[in-house]
Amino acid sequence: MLVKPHNRKRPGLNHLAFHAGDHDRVNALTAAAADHGWALMFANKHPHAGGPQTYAANLSNTDGYQVELTANNP
């Protein structure tokens, strides 16, 4: 049974993280995300929301699910 709205603090799936390729690929996927219902999270820290040694896009959709697209050459 799906509980609406999704709450990331409840038991179960919080977010999925993917190796998305190099910086250019992460940037391209981030740019295309809005066309598919995803919004950038932590825009003021993007692409280093995970720290200065990371390069990733953190995205959420209207159902509250989150994905992290991480560059494999941070």
Q: What is the gist of this entry?
A:
By secondary structure, the chain is α+β, with helices and mostly antiparallel strands.
Overview of the structural elements:
The protein is an alpha+beta fold and about 70 residues long. It has a single domain, classed as 2,3-Dihydroxybiphenyl 1,2-Dioxygenase, domain 1 (Roll), CATH 3.10.180.10. The chain has one helix and four strands. The protein has one helix spanning about 25-35; strands at about 15-20, 40, 55-60, 65-70. It has a four-stranded mixed β-sheet, covered by helices on one side. The termini are far apart.
How do the helices and strands line up, and which of them pair or pack?
Blueprint: E1 15-21, H1 23-33, E2 38-40, E3 56-61, E4 66-71
Parallel strand pairs: 1-4
Antiparallel strand pairs: 2-3, 3-4
Task: Spell out the CATH superfamily.
Answer: 2,3-Dihydroxybiphenyl 1,2-Dioxygenase, domain 1
State the CATH class.
Answer: Alpha Beta
Secondary-structure element string: EHEEE
Radius of gyration: 13 Å
What is the arithmetic mean of pLDDT? 87
Fraction of helical residues: 10-25%
Number of helices: 1
How many β-strand stretches?
Answer: 4
Largest sheet: 4 strands, mixed
Characteristic terms for this protein:
74 residues; alpha+beta; 2,3-Dihydroxybiphenyl 1,2-Dioxygenase, domain 1; four-stranded mixed beta sheet; 1 helix; 4 strands; VOC family protein; Glyas_Bleomycin-R_OHBP_Dase
